[in-house]
Here is the input.
Amino acid sequence: MKFCFVNPSPSSESIYMVPTAWPPLGVLYCAGVLKAGGIEVSLLDQPAKGFSLDQTVDWVKKEDPDIVGFSVLLSTAKEAPRIAGRVKVENPDVTVVFGSHHSTFNAGRILEKYPFVDVVVRGEGEYTCLEVARCMEKGEGLDKVEGISFRKNGGVLSTPDRALNKDVDALPFPDRGLAGTKYESAIFGVKINSRKFTTILSSRGCPFNCSFCGIRKFTRRVWRPRSVENVMAELEYLQSEGYEQFLFADDNFTLDAKRVSRLCRSIKKAGMDIDWFCDSRVDHVSYGMFREMVDAGCRCLFFGIESANQRILDYYRKGITPEQSEKAVRKARKAGVDVIVGSFIVGAPDETRREIVNTLEFANRLDLDVPDVNILGTHVGTDLWNDLVTKGLLNEDEKWEDEVCIPRDVSTLVPYEKVRNLVFEYFRAFYLNPKQLLTELLRTSKSGFRIAAAIQNLIGFPHLIENISQAIRRDEK
Here is the structure.
């Protein structure tokens, strides 16, 4: 039995396309469980390899798998079926499996629209994929496999959801060599890693209620941390493989301050010379925690700030205040974090122009190195999507595969062109501000991490401006 995975490239029309690929950890975790179960596994990370549609189909044909699995996010919702359809034509006997976030929330629609998709794995797929493979190997039916949707007797059968795997320490470490490619970490196309880089998960899930995010429903509001000992074992293994810079891809890395402290102390005790980056909410912070993180190698911190307006934050159900964001940024700066990134969202349905400007001015006031301003989008699996559908502002049957940009696709107080222009002008003013440029140059001169990254990006600043412009104007293509 052979199981091949394809991580598809984002569609050329994608407006939220990530310019630099990261290791597909979800697929790698599935592959690890399959390998441990005696299943032969291979993987193609299409965006990392830069493969065309034809090259990807040829790769699958050469591998000649029994099962081919596609990790399908919203950005790949239309590209994955293009590949899968071609694969099925080449080999009608291959079983095509779709999984990941988009597939979980649209299982029935996918099976109804695409006859060449045989099975949809819902939720976290490690043990579900293994059971599917074993059933097919034995020629058994799939009725008892929890967490899947598939065709039966002319209809779509969805089995009960699989219980979340709470013992995340028991999962094999992802085999990053399976992808056979080198990965980088970038902000707006500017590389921030100067040494061998990869991503790592120290926890899964999110207990919060943000209306624009689908992680909560995907992981059922359950946060499952790995033990510090298990994370350290993987870090030490990865360091032995030459990895020296890491992004913790957790949705809530700083949720448990005591756990963060234990991990940082363990990294220091082991004498690990590593750099790492992570996300943090602004309401689960302290100067002491940031100081321990910096001492243990934290070089870049991403804050989800979202808005300067409490009304909009409440609409997003973010559960924070602008004052908490100000304090979090100050504490991180005082603690010595090299690069501080703040993410913002503008373009909510009833957000006024004044409120958008408030957020952009707030981003300017905060002592950020990189403000990341996004125009609000939505997709199936979020409460925001459900609200817009309920109000008749979105046609779910027409838009479920589309990347919906709220001001562009929904009637809003501020038209899309005005939102887009405000954001673009903000970016241009921020990055061409002489005072900001001088500040960043001075900070870089005092930071070995930033100096090393700068050397990797000798022409990075023009690329930065170009990537910002492309991100804002991508919808014009």
